[in-house]
């Protein structure tokens, strides 16, 4: 993938752009900016003017491009936007741009983000917190009360291993059903 600066003209393929180029395009209203992260991540922080279309739901029909607008995808660090660009290119979309290093590059350039009030933390972080609490609780109960407490620690460890191997996390799916995650439209997929 090529790096595109504000002085270059993009050809009909996917290109990385930098944060100053995106800022200029946003000021010129010459861009449709799509955040391909999950809704909870979008609610926590997103670039002003971005619309949320998670990677799992990203397709050609979800885009509302006018002929004079460029399409720019971004995510947290650039991995999911690259997957999104490949998905759209396979569907026949051309002239796709990606914000290199995602929203991290935007913030590192000193540009502001929008944070929605009351947005829950991401499901990934919720799973990390819940697993950490359960493992610690199992250890404390195992050491102080009964050796059966170690079973909880082992069960959580097996669950995390299963999630890592299969990509299916039961704890994530359960947490996604909590009311505050449903309001933010967070899904574990």
UniProtKB/TrEMBL annotation:
Alphabetized InterPro entries for the sequence: GlpE_sulfurtransferase, Rhodanese-like_dom, Rhodanese-like_dom_sf, YgaP-like_TM
Coiled coil segments of this chain: none
TM stretches of this protein: 129-150, 156-176
All copies of domain Rhodanese, residue ranges: 27-115
Name of this protein: Rhodanese-like domain-containing protein
Domain of life: Bacteria
Keyword vocabulary terms for this entry: Membrane, Transmembrane, Transmembrane helix
Pfam hit, one: YgaP-like_TM
SMART domains, per database record: RHOD
């Amino acid at each position: 993938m090529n790096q595109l600066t504000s002085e270059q003209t993009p050809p009909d393929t996917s290109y990385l752009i930098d944060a100053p180029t995106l800022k200029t395009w946003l000021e010129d209203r010459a861009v449709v900016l799509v955040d391909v992260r999950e809704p909870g991540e979008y609610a926590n922080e997103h670039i002003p003017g971005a619309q949320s279309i998670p990677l799992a739901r990203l397709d050609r029909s979800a885009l509302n491009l006018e002929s004079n607008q460029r399409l720019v995808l971004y995510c947290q660090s650039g991995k999911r936007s690259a997957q999104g660009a490949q998905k759209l290119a396979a569907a026949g979309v051309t002239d796709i741009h990606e914000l290199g290093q995602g929203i991290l590059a935007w913030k590192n350039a000193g540009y502001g983000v929008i944070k929605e009030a009351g947005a829950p933390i991401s499901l990934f972080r919720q799973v990390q917190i819940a697993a950490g609490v359960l493992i610690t609780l199992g250890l404390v109960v195992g050491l102080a009360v009964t050796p059966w407490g170690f079973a909880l620690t082992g069960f959580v460890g097996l669950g995390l291993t299963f999630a890592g191997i299969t990509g299916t996390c039961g704890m994530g799916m359960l947490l996604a059903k909590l009311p505050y995650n449903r309001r933010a439209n967070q899904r574990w997929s």
